[in-house]
Amino acid sequence: MSELDNDPLLSRLILAEKVARAGGAKALEYFLQRETLVVETKYDLQDVVSRADREVEQMIDQQIRAQFADDGFLGEEYGLQEGSSGYTWVVDPIDGTSPFLNGMPNWCVSVAVLHDGVPVIGVIFAPTYQECYVAAIGQGATLNGKRLQVDVSRTLQNHVTGFGANSHVSPDEVGKILASLLAAGGNFIRIGSGALMLAWVAAGRVVGYYEPYMHAWDCLAGYCLVKEAGGWYHPFNTEGERLLKGAQVLAVAPGAEADLKRIAGL
């Protein structure tokens, strides 16, 4: 048995990057022939899915099962398969399906690993940018191998904040949040992929990311990345059925933490 086999975190980290890159390559093939995809709706007309999402998720699931059959697996498209090892993989095969289907580059593959409910691995691969964000608990975060560290001098007022919302959030609530952000001297950007914007927090491209209602498969990989890059995140309740339900998501660099917590009501 190799040293790698004896390190449960490192062996899963290597696999997480491998499956994220493989999933991204498969998704990119579909992206380049997206006019052939049949688009379906889920929760509402803005919540779309295609064969690409399902096949990428199945491929990632199969590769993980081949190496870690006792791990749990939660994917956006097929739900939760319970495990017995204490590790659970949480995967969004294509986060940003709407940008994906409409020919925009802002989408990614998100792969997180939980250990006893805590995100200990986060990998986000954005194929159109050829950018792979990788983090593991206690080991820092990287982008294409380069170490990431949030800039403590960036604030709500001198940087831009990522924001996202969906039909689970009322238009009035969205308006109030953005009004508070602007009144505090901030500004915002929305790209249609919450997972990718969380990776951008770790990379310093935005000072924080806030979404009032988001699912585990969208945020847990990004949470690990932000924490390992020196930022803070609002914990996501991963206990039992809560793992399957949406929750408030905030990840932020230190200089904007107080402002964004206040705006989010935390």
Description:
With 266 residues, the protein is α+β, with helices and mostly antiparallel strands. It has two domains: 8-148, Fructose-1,6-Bisphosphatase, subunit A, domain 1 (Fructose-1,6-Bisphosphatase, Chain A, domain 1, 2-Layer Sandwich), CATH 3.30.540.10; 161-264, D-Maltodextrin-Binding Protein, domain 2. The chain has seven helices and 15 strands. The strands form three sheets. Strands 4-3-5-6-7-8-9-10 form an eight-stranded mixed β-sheet, with helices on both faces. Helix 4 links the parallel strand 11 (161-163) and strand 12. The radius of gyration is 18 Å and the shape is globular. The termini are far apart.
Task: Offer a quick outline of the entry.
The protein has seven helices and 15 strands. The chain has helices at residues 8-31, 51-67, 97-101, 171-183, 194-203, 216-228, 254-264, and strands at residues 40-41, 48-49, 72-75, 79-81, 87-95, 108-115, 118-126, 131-136, 141-143, 146-148, 161-163, 188-189, 208-214, 232-233, 247-252.
Mean pLDDT: 91
- Secondary-structure element order, N to C: HEEHEEEHEEEEEEHEHEHEEH
Distance between the termini: 47 Å
Strand content: 25-35%
The overall number of domains is 2
CATH structural fold name of the largest domain? Fructose-1,6-Bisphosphatase, Chain A, domain 1
Major sheet details: 8 strands, mixed
State the shape.
globular
Low-confidence stretches: 44-48
CATH superfamily of the largest domain: Fructose-1,6-Bisphosphatase, subunit A, domain 1
Radius of gyration: 18 Å
**Assembly state (oligomeric):** single chain
Number of helical elements: 7
Helix content: 25-40%
Do you know the CATH architecture of the largest domain?
2-Layer Sandwich
- Spatial strand order of the main sheet: 4-3-5-6-7-8-9-10
Identify the CATH class of the largest domain.
Answer: Alpha Beta
How many beta-strand runs? 15
- Structural class by helix and strand composition: alpha+beta
